[in-house]
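Side project, low priority. Logging it here so it doesn't get lost.
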Amino acid sequence: MPGPSKDVSPKPPEAEPAGCLSTIARVIWIMVGNFALLILMVLIVQKGTFSFLDIVFWAVVAAVLFVRYADIRWLKGLGPDAQPATMKDWAKHARLLLLIAGGAWAVAHALLLLLRR
């Protein structure tokens, strides 16, 4: 008669509690950075031409990517599944942010050029 079966599958590593700095970093790269990019995009469209705002826009993109990198690399940041994030998560975030920010920036300037004709 066999005994009770025991589940011997390895458990995924549990995430350590996030520190204060990690929480601040997460708020920056999730909310503050994206909100700043939205506001900058509105200001760029209102300005109607290439300006210092374009430089600030791309500096904010770089800052968001750096904060996310620091969150994963040094602050033990979490991924979307509440598990420890990896550099693969960072690369995915970087590709998505560059695609969306770059696309929005390019479309805004293309439309502005077309509307000025």
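Brief comment: The mean pLDDT is 88.
Revisit when time allows.
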